Amino acid sequence: MTAITQSTAHREVAARDTRFSDELRVAGMVWERELIRYTRNRTRIVSGLTQPVLFLFVLGYGMGSLVGSTGGFNFRQFVFPGVVAMSVVMTAIFSAISIVWDREFGFLREMLVAPVSRTALVLGKTAGGASVAAVQGTIMLALAPLVGVHLTPLLIVEVIALELLMAVAMTTFGVFVASRIQKMEAFQVVMQMILMPMLFLSGALFPLSGLPRWLMVITRLNPLTYAVAPLRQVIFAAQNMSPAAQARFAAGVTINGYVLPIWIDMVIVTAFALVFFTLAIWGLSRTE
Amino acid sequence: MTGDQAISNDLGDRPLAVEVQGLTKRFGDFTAVDDVSFSVAQGEVFAFLGPNGAGKSTCIKMLCTLASPSSGSAKVAGLDIVTRAKAVRRQIGLVFQEQTLDDQLTAEENLRFHAVLYGVPRDQVDARITRVLELVALSDRRKALVSTFSGGMARRLEIARGMLHTPRVLFLDEPTLGLDPQTRALMWEDVLRLRDEEGVTVFLTTHYMEEAEQADRIAIIDRGSIIALDTPHALKAAVGADTVSLETSDDASALALLVAEGYRAEATETGITVFVEDEEAAVGPIVDTLGGTVRTVRAHRPTLDDVFLHFTGREIRQSHGDAIPMMARAFGARRG
After folding, report:
1. Is pTM, for the whole model, over 0.95?
2. A23 interfaces chain B, CB cutoff of 8 Å
3. At what angle do helices B181-198 and B122-135 cross, to 10 degrees?
4. Which of these ranges, A29-38, B66-75, B89-98, B182-191, has the smallest mean pLDDT?
5. What is the ipTM of this complex?
6. What is the pLDDT of residues A252-282, one digit of tens each?
7. Given an 8 Å threshold on Cβ–Cβ distance, is A17 in contact with B197?
8. Do residues B89 and A97 lie in contact, with contact meaning Cβ atoms separated by under 8 Å?
9. Which of A16, A19, A32, A33 best probes binding to B when mutated, by most B CB atoms within 10 angstroms?
10. Could you tell me the residue range of the domain that residue A111 belongs to?
11. Number of domains within chain A
12. Which of A19, B33, B72, B212 could make a disulfide contact with B49, Cβ separation 3.0–4.6 Å?
């Protein structure tokens, strides 16, 4: 009998229109699902760390001996923020791309046929991907002492904030790409053709100053450049670097000799995120 | 076609869960659903029976607002499927042919996710989850990951999920596809329990005769049109009478005795065939009449296979849309 009374009560609810608070609740649930799946998948956490760690130590020591150090500052310390950014970017993209898996295994359909807006779904997915990516990037900070990078509580807060911004941008980008992909094989192609070039041409692994003109232009056109630079700027600002080291291992993005302040970088990344947030909603509206 | 008189859609003044008027869906030159009209009463188990490619899934998709009709109209739970699509979706439960669970989540997490998607009030979510898991007898698997579920369990969890937001109509598209007979029977128990205890209208498509048999009413759909619509019993009655076949120790005197009692009976090569209204009810009296002379009794009622054959001139198994030509083409290509 209780079932009957519940049913009538619920039917009254079902008859009304969707409210803003319902949409937020849906976004929250999508977000929670991302976190559940992330914490349940230990191999993903570990494998997500492998590549950045390889870059940090193999590239850090391998290239480090070639590059040498300036004013007590070496290549490992330089590359560290880039490697943190790398782990954030990869985790965000992987998280977003799980939409392709969801499509393959049918769960995307469960979400798309529900009486909720695409905006709520993309919002939840973005928040989820961003949280997971920021967590993964922050785990990387544990390696800082091993490569001689000093951390302060304030710096950690700044880094997490920048990681979140970067992760939001990359997740919206990933959700858009995933919404247009029907097959898992296509995902590999996207990784090879978009993600790797974006990472390599973002200044994550080498300084952006003193490059040949063509490479300089490409790096300045790459939106990821403006996400990596602020991260490096705030980390370097806490490192007590000599002027010579600052000149050699430039952190900020320069355009015609003018160093862009962090806030301009952040505006560019935010704009990128907003564009792809809109495109992601559009992309998902076209399916089903 | 002989079937016009077989479409009986008089539901009296029962409240309607689904009302369809002249619903049509065209894809270019091809008409997948052709001017279909029918109604389903609240609390009915209603089956769409037909071969693959007959238009069942297209029709159900339109009713679920996942495809828009080319012409015609339909109401589900009193709401227009075109103008009130979102409201319709809140009033229906959906179980698709293919699985749509997240197998990295537990049963409970899948249900909780669904509850939020469909706006089940926070204070009712736990009670509803407990309730629907009971309905499909999966309470003990509440905390288990869906990846550990068998195909049948996953399907039943999907049915539970479809019921979670207390829909007025539960749509099941080929719900027993790929399930073994035992699981199929379990699933049917679930479906009938849902109808009885939650008062939900169940609308399903199938191409299994035995399955359609369980429904209150069946619409036989072929090449986009409904060619017969009635209760399983009435559909079979339209095809021909029930029969009781007998072998006795003395067929001649048994036949005389039956005719004297007013039965319509005739002798066959192996014994006697009696034509009756209702074979189940008739067996007892016939055996009583003949006393101890009866050796074997076989009662037969026309099956839905007979019904399908009668209305379409084909057997359902021979007419799986264009699946067979396509397979032939595939084999041909492989050989070539």
Report:
1. no
2. no
3. 130
4. B182-191
5. 0.85
6. 888 888 888 999 999 999 999 999 999 999 9
7. no
8. no
9. A33
10. 2-285
11. 1
12. B212
